[in-house]
Amino acid sequence: MASTELQELQHVCQRAHAGLHEEIHEWREWWKQLCELGQPNFGEMAARLAHFRQHLREHFTEMERSGCATGFAIAEPQLASEICMLQGEHPELLAELDAIIEELQSLQPGVCWGEARQRVEGFLDQLHEHELAEERLIQSFS
């Protein structure tokens, strides 16, 4: 793969990650404000997470459609297993988010807000680690 093609793939991937990071940041800000108010609204949280899930699915689809993983695996075959592992996490992350959304939709007022909060924060941390691993991989091609 030509150097310019690889650089273009890097830019595509970096732009996709930047957009996702911005959305995660906005999510965390909303979450922080909600926690400061101390007024949990599980329904709104589930709806916002469902919207975020749609964007996350689009992000994963775009990463796969753009050929980022394939292009990088061709350029550096020794990294193919790591690339494959990261791509394999995409459906797992979406399934985890689906489970959180479903749980939030079924919660009633009075349910422990802290537990719901920890579950969402844990997911965001897991997603952040996944994205960092992808970014490190992308940057290794510089």
How many H/I helical runs? 5
Which overall shape is indicated by the principal axes computed on the Cα atoms?
A: elongated
Low-confidence stretches: none
Work out the strand percent: under 5%
Q: Could you tell me the radius of gyration in angstroms?
A: 17 Å
- Pairing-aware structural class of the strands and helices? mainly alpha
Q: What is the residue-mean pLDDT, rounded to a whole number?
A: 82
Number of domains: 1
Span from first to last CA? 14 Å
- In total, the number of strands is 0
Major sheet attributes = none
Tell me which oligomeric state these chains represent: single chain
Give, in order, the helices and strands. Answer: HHHHH
Helix content: over 70%
Q: Any chance you could write out the topology, listing elements then pairs?
A:
Blueprint: H1 3-37, H2 42-65, H3 68-75, H4 80-106, H5 113-139
Helix pairs in contact: 1-2, 1-3, 1-5, 2-4, 3-4, 4-5
Short key terms for the protein model shown above:
0% strand, single chain, mainly alpha, elongated
